[in-house]
Amino acid sequence: MLRIAVLVSGSGSNLQAIIDEIEKGSLNCEIKYVISDSEKAYGLERAKNHGIETIALDRKIYKGKVSDEILNLINGQVDLIVLAGYLSILNGEILRVFRNKIINIHPSLIPSFSGAGMYGIKVHEAAVKKGVKYSGCTVHFVNEEVDGGEILLQEVVPVFVEDTAETLQKRILVEEHKLLPKAIKLISDKKVKIENGKCYISK
Ligand code: GRF
């Protein structure tokens, strides 16, 4: 069974979506740890409510060493790291040890509205300001480039002229909750191959 660590910084609604799919029996994996860079993340409460081990590494205390600390704690114990609203940037050794074994969900159609500084509501503010007709969400692999790894799955969401960043965020979040568990299932079913900067998904 695929063993995963889910990293969160905030509300953890994507984490909840993964937990729900596991409990329904439609996702065959085990969440070994939920890790946060903030003790206040509500995602930690969600994990505790379901008996999942939690770790809080305050980024103000660990500063640039959060990634190394996470690697120390989970190395050899998980097969996949899932970033679900994790706001710190992973860096250093963890990116080499977990090469092609870290995925992230981003609330836009990468490469639009992505990269350094594009997170949370800022992504949706930029999409609304630009007047795009479609936005969406992307699950991608994580490498040294922020939001630059291979794209695994994307879902398109319409943007309406009367949208605010908040209404768009809400509409996209509904799709995120389906896309992230779907991505984990593909990996757990060993259907994903990465080659020449692209993801190939087998039937
Ligand atoms: C989501 O929009 C996700 O795409 C982004 O951060 C948000 C996290 O939401 N990376 P939640 O904590 O899962 O509710």
Automatic annotation (TrEMBL):
GO process terms (BP): 'de novo' IMP biosynthetic process
Residues binding N(1)-(5-phospho-beta-D-ribosyl)glycinamide: 12-14
InterPro entries: Formyl_transf_N, Formyl_transf_N_sf, GART, GART_AS
MF GO annotations: phosphoribosylglycinamide formyltransferase activity
Residues at which (6R)-10-formyltetrahydrofolate binds: 59, 104
Keyword Transferase: yes
Keyword Transferase: yes
Top-level class of the enzyme under EC nomenclature: transferase
Cellular component aspect of the GO annotation: cytosol
Protein name according to UniProt: Phosphoribosylglycinamide formyltransferase
Gene behind this protein: purN
